Amino acid sequence: ISAEFNEIKILKHISGKIMSKNSILNHLEYDKTSGALTYKGVRYLLIRPETIINFQKEMETSLGEKAKQGFYEGGFSGGFLSSKKYKEIFKFSDRQIIEFMMEMGTEIGWGCFALTHFDLEKKVLRVSVKNSPFVRSPGEASKGTCDLIRGVVGGMASVIFNQTCTASEVECISKGFDMCLFVVDLNSDVT
Q: Which residues lie across from 171 on neighbouring strands?
């Protein structure tokens, strides 16, 4: 009954009928003997953004674009696996997957996610993020710096569009914009 209740609660939450302070925190499980923090059986890690930012900067200094691609692939894997798992568990529609992932991204502290455009037929997805924890000083970078989020969006889009997708970060606070904007458009070369 408890698992069934939680599933109903999440479905109602997505449809906007229940507003929780943070549904992720309410369902985190901590196993002291193994030192694991899990959500719905998936392990998560709490880490300061500066740790990731400084690691990424060092990797970019050493590896250049390969470092950005590595962070992208890490995010892609997480976005793909999470979208696929939650689609299978909850039988979500494509739009519900997006809404769930946007809410989850916000609730785990990756910034305030918003779906700005979605067209399943044209295979277009646009996601904005305010207050990304992966932003460096505003205007410091010439390219987007939120490669983990960019990867998550690409992985999620790959599940939704049922083909491998690449997301672009067309706007980034690190480049001087007000927010970060991630785009998947299978009909154009968005850069």
A: 181
